[in-house]
Amino acid sequence: MEKPYTGGCACGAIRYSIEGEPLFSNHCQCRDCQRESGSGHGSYATFARAGVTLTGDARHWDMVADNGKVKTRGFCTQCGVAVYMTFAAQPDVFTIRAASLDEPARYRPQAVTFAARGHEWDPLDPGLVKFDGMPPG
């Protein structure tokens, strides 16, 4: 069995442990992720929800994505760090912010999403597959 992915917020009030490998890992350059990260993109790894153990008290913020569906961001009530996202249209997945990993070097991005909204001042790996929005399917 592979070692679980573990991580949490900056102060440790929220912790997660995830069994299994990511289903998808990406840098997202949409405006929502830019605003939340305070940078040109957010970096995420998405896992099967069944493998996730989550502890701590998260505050949730719902927002409507470009596709009109609700995505919920979970952040720490103590330190304010955003740790994860869930999606109403995809209840079987759980997405973590790559920087929240205890071992961020385990993160391996596969693609850039919403590349059409990227900024010249935030160059990303040119070898990654780029999608103007979300990839199909």
UniProtKB/TrEMBL annotation:
The keyword GTP-binding does not apply. Residues 5-122 form the CENP-V/GFA domain. The keyword Isomerase does not apply. Signal peptide: none annotated. Keywords: Lyase, Metal-binding, Zinc. One of its GO terms (molecular function) is carbon-sulfur lyase activity. Gene3D superfamilies: glutathione-dependent formaldehyde- activating enzyme (gfa) (3.90.1590.10). PANTHER family: CENP-V_GFA DOMAIN-CONTAINING PROTEIN-RELATED (PTHR33337:SF40), GFA DOMAIN-CONTAINING PROTEIN (PTHR33337). Belongs to the Gfa family. This is Uncharacterized conserved protein. It comes from Bradyrhizobium yuanmingense.
